[in-house]
Every structure is written in structure tokens, then in C-alpha cells.
Amino acid sequence: MSAPSIETIVNLSKRRGFVFPASEIYGGLSSAWDFGPLGVELANNIKNAWWRWLVHERDDIEGIDTCIIQNRLVWKYSGHEATFNDPLVDCRTCKGRFRYDKLHEYHCPRESSTCVGKGKECDLTEPRQFNLMFKTTVGAVSAEDDPSALVYLRPETAQGIFINFKNVLDTTRRKLPFGIAQIGKSFRNEVTPGNFIFRTREFEQMEMEYFCHPKDAAKIHQEWIDAFLQWFKDLGISEKNLKLHEQTPDELAHYAVRCVDILYRFFPERPDEKAQFDELMGIANRTDYDLRQHSKKAVDEHGNRINPDSTEDLSYFDPVTQERFYPYCIEPAAGVNRTVLAVMMDAYSEKMSERGEKRVILKLKASLAPIKVAVLPLAKNKPEIVSMAKAIKKDLMKDFRTVYDDTAGIGKLYARQDEIGTPFCVTVDHQSLEDNAVTVRDRDTWEQDRINVSQLGEYLRKRLKEK
Ligand code: ATP
Question: pLDDT truncated to tens, each residue of the chain (467 aa)?
């Protein structure tokens, strides 16, 4: 089957409770989305997989959870206050607003389709810089009355890691190389948000800063690019829908010397193959830029202190070589929301039932599936069957996320679970009362096994691990 469009996933998400439009009962809020009961489970499973893989299953990475609102000086010295901008242009004819760097030509992109001006009459303003950070104030004052009250919502989680570098180093007694990982919300007042949860103004990031000696940075950078490409494949995303992109010098952020993006085929319906792919994560070599910028002792090329406001020096002393230096930092930064979207698009499939009806099957890797097992009674008017099914559900839910459902006939119940990616359905029938066995149905093959209830937990544990 050809890949589904984002629109197909939007419909499934709304219908089944993965994602809802935010503030919907008040007409919504542009490009803002809430995770529903299934979406929050899927997102949590992705975040847990990332955290387990980096923080628990390796021995060189620590976790952290820092504030969304930090001292404004963090963003002054990180460079975001001055340079975290998108160049904006307006079309004087259709009043459309666009990102200048995303235009292929210096023409209104609506020209050929909807812009009423058409052709030469469609003229754009000069590009002007628009800072993407959201502003707010701390305390009962406005920024106009007291400019020192101005603060920003963080546009990346990374800075919370850099400013805590010394705290983590001192408390964990780490030696280079080591990393610090963080998952959390970031905010960008995007000029052109859209495409469902692909680009929103509030989103969640999974970021890790891996600190190393400058001479090792290029090699370690490449290792993380390879490792993350494999990680996405291990999440069940097919190789043909993933691609690497080496950022060109004019694409690089102000702090990076090299950045490689992992792209996913988010837009399979676009005729141009290149345009089908867009960024899922970026893996940057940020050099020693950030640690230096936040350090009280660091100086620029003229010998002037870079940061007279900082009270700490974030350099590192190597006890073996007796060398003091600012570590380089490799940053793999992924979006939770874009990973949710990529995983759902990749898992989406359709199959014809025996009755010739189209069935949707979300072939999620079992560890990501919002629900692992659904227990279904074949006859809900038979109290013995219902109570046996409920007892099985109660038992299984200690080990797996399990639900009980008796609100429709068995065919419909199976279809509902297939559509949300539940790997196994357990059906209790009349025979179960006699032989203490149940039917276990596989989401992907629709094959059924008869399993004794005493073996059920063991059987499911094994099968879930394989899926
Ligand atoms: P883009 O070029 O798409 O604007 P970016 O290069 O600015 O993204 P980074 O700063 O590298 O993004 O952020 C790391 C990751 O955070 C991205 O790869 C993406 O998955 C996620 N991300 C960034 N901006 C958004 C957004 N507005 N909405 C959803 N996810 C985002």
C-alpha cells in the first residue's frame, strides 16, 4: 500500500482519540493540538524508549529536567535574543506572510494558485527579521513598566543543559566524554506553522548534549548520526522513508559547524521526491560555543570577556593530561511530535476483510502501542463470560496496558483494536468456561491461537517482545 497522507492520519487521530485540535470548542487555536487518551500513551512510549536507550541502557549519559523559563541572560548569551530569527516577507496583494528562506523564488508562492494579484502585480515586501521566542513577564508587572521583568519561554531545551554543565559534572564526578539528556516542551512563535503536529508553536523535544574533547568531536558526531538513524529504524520506521541531509553553510545555526538532519517522508503525495522529505531530527556539532558563551572566564579574540554577567566558568579540567579547555558538544535533537507522526504514518496500513470491507491496521511496534492487549467477551449477556473476561483483564493489567471492551459485536471490536494498533486481542467464549482457555488473535495476521489462561501472561509477554 502507498504511504498515507498526513490528512489520513489527522482523520484517524481525531476519530480514535490520538490527537484533537486544541481549544476546539472555541473555534480552535491556529496550529495547536492536544494529545488524546491514545496519543498521550504513544508519545509517552516514544519518550520512554528514548530515555531508556540513552540514560538507562548506557553508562555515559545522565538525565536532567530544567525550567522552561530561565533568566533572560541565558538567551542573551546563547545568542537567541539577537539571532533566533526567521526572515519574513509579506505579499502586498494577497496579504499572505511567508518565510523568505523557504521561498524558491522572490515571488508570492500563492501566485500560481490563489493569490489574486497574479504575476507581476504580486509583489513582496523586503525581508525583515522576526524573533521566534515567546515573551512573558515574571511577577505582577508588565514588560513596559519594568523591562527587567521580561523573560522568554525556552525555544530549545538545550540551554538548560549547558547552564547546568558544572552542576552535573560536580555531582556525578563524570569524565569526558559524557552526555546530559532532557525531554521537555519548547516554544517557537513560528511564522508558518502547519501540517498537523509537524510544525506547531508549542512542541516537545528530546535533546541530548554529548560533551567531548574537541579532537574527538567529528568522529563522535558521525557515531551519533549513525546511532540515531538506527534508533528510528528500531522504532519500526522503514528505511525507505528515512534519509540524511547534510546542512549547507547557509542552513547552519549560528552555533554549529556541522549539522546532519534525519529526514522522514512526511509528504508522500508530493510529486517531487526531494520535497516529500522533511526534518525529523537534527544532529549538530555545536563546538564549544555554548559553554564558552556562558562562562565568566572565556574571552573573545581580542581578549575581552565574553560574558561579564556569568558567575561560573564552565571549562573542564582533564586530570590525566592536566589540560583545561571548553568541551565540544554534539547535540542530537529530535521532536516528540514529529516522531509520533512519523511512527503513525509508517505503521498505517489497510487490508480487506473477508466480507470485503476496508480495515485499517496500525502496525505499531508492540512497545509503542498505546494498548498492548484487549480482552473481549464473545457474549456480553452471559455473566460468567463477562466476569471471566474482567478477571483476566485485571490480572493482565499488572504487566501490560490492557483494556476490556464489550460495547459491540466481536468483528467490530477486533476492527477497533486493529485501527489503534493493539497487538493482541484475547477473546473469552462459551468454551472458555469449560476448558479455561481463550483465543488470542494477532493484529497483523489475524491468526488465532488457543491458550490456557494459566499460560496467558507468559505467552503474551513472549509474543509482545517479538513484535
Ligand atoms: P525546522 O527546520 O523544521 O524549523 P529546526 O531545524 O529549527 O526545524 P531544531 O532546532 O533542530 O529544528 O530542533 C530539533 C527538532 O525539534 C526538530 O528536528 C523537530 O523534530 C523539532 N521541532 C523544531 N521545531 C518544531 C516545531 N515548530 N514543531 C514541531 N517540532 C519542532
Answer: 668 999 999 999 999 999 999 999 999 999 999 999 999 999 999 999 999 999 999 999 999 999 999 999 999 999 999 999 888 888 888 888 888 887 777 777 776 557 655 555 567 888 889 899 999 999 888 877 888 899 999 999 999 999 999 999 999 999 999 999 999 999 999 988 899 999 999 999 999 999 999 999 999 999 999 999 999 999 999 999 999 999 999 999 888 999 999 999 999 999 999 999 999 999 999 999 999 999 999 999 999 999 999 999 999 999 999 999 999 999 999 999 999 999 999 999 999 988 889 999 999 999 999 999 999 999 989 999 999 999 999 999 999 999 999 999 999 999 999 999 999 999 999 999 999 999 999 999 999 999 999 999 999 999 999 99
Q: Could you confirm whether domain 6-83+140-344 is CATH 3.30.930.10?
A: yes
User: Is the beta carbon of 192 within 6 A of some atom in ligand 1?
Assistant: no
| 360 Cα–ligand 1 center, Å | 30
Q: Is residue 245 within 6 Å of ligand 1 at its C-beta? A: no
How many CA atoms within 13 Å lie on the side-chain side of 322? 0
Cβ–Cβ under 8 Å, residues 421 and 340: no
Ligand 1 pocket, residue 338 CB under 6 Å:
yes
199 lines ligand 1 (CB under 6 A): yes
Q: Give the C-alpha separation, 350 to 333, whole Å.
A: 32
Q: Domain 371-466 belongs to what architecture?
A: 3-Layer(aba) Sandwich (3.40)
CA 155 to centroid of ligand 1, rounded, Å: 10
Domain regions of the chain by residue span: 6-83+140-344, 85-131, 371-466
The residue whose CA has the least distance to atom 1 of ligand 1 is 279
Residue closest via CA to ligand 1's atom 18 equals 281
What DSSP string describes 9-48?
Answer: HHHHHHHHTSEEETTGGGT--TT-EEE-HHHHHHHHHHHH
How many angstroms separate the alpha carbon of residue 292 from the centre of ligand 1?
A: 24
Length of the chain: 467
Nearest residue (CA) to ligand 1, atom 19: 335
Strands 242-246 and 328-335: unpaired
User: 263 alpha carbon to ligand 1 midpoint, in Å?
Assistant: 11
341 Cα: distance to centroid of ligand 1 (angstroms): 13
Residues 399/461, Cβ–Cβ less than 8 Å: yes
Cα-flanking dihedrals φ and ψ of residue 275, to 5°?
-75, -10
Does the C-beta of 337 come closer than 6 Å to ligand 1?
yes
